[in-house]
Amino acid sequence: MNKAALEFSSRPENVAFARVAVAALASQLDFTLSDLEEIKVAVSEAVTNAIIHGYDNNPECMVRLEIKIVEEFIEIEIIDTGKGIKDITKALEPAYSTDPERMGLGFSFMQSFMENFSVSSSPGKGTRVKMSRRAGTPGRKAVSEQ
Amino acid sequence: MNYTIKRKNNYLIVSVIGDVDINLTDSLRKDVDLALAHYGVNNLVFDLTDVDFVDSSGLGVILGRYKRVSANGGKVYLAGAKPQVKKVLDLSGLPRLMEMYPSVNLLLDKIG
Which region ranges are annotated with the description Disordered (chain A) (predicted)? Predict the structure, then answer.
């Protein structure tokens, strides 16, 4: 097993930092460039959610990123200690968004591009997104947003 | 700045470079809205030729602008998306709302 853990400020510029860090570690496995691009989208969505929804864009908070390589799998956890999600079932609905300028596709993209996905959250305590993908296999079948 | 905005006839052409995520979207949204108002045009072209990455934050800016211009009878066009960007666009369903062209030149030929 190979693993890495990072904590970074909940600032928009760190979304790119997080997805590049994950892609760098994931590239130790037999992922194609297309696979890595999909993994980067999934990470970007999870970290963006932590910053925007978990911390309400407060740049003074910290997002934790844990990455593991276990055999052929890349396992990724994105953890915030923000306000949490009141209704996870509703949040997971495609096209659900509390903001008209957002598409509500973040969780759909995570589920589409990763093989395994789960989210746990406690209001007032934070949110943990876990996702993994095996090298050499496509992500889960795309889900429609409509 | 990672984008340029220019007017061509009745079209606003927004050429974006690099990664389109929440680090860019606030300023991009604001500047496109200002340019739409300033030039008084109602058709919008997103030139994605030099976009390497887009997530749902970037798509949200496109969708928001679509809602704005289409409410006034305008159109939004997408052009030049690389395969990894096109994949995200396709999954989002945005191409069902707006025309997508493989290159800006093809699009400009079409719209004149």
Answer: 119-146
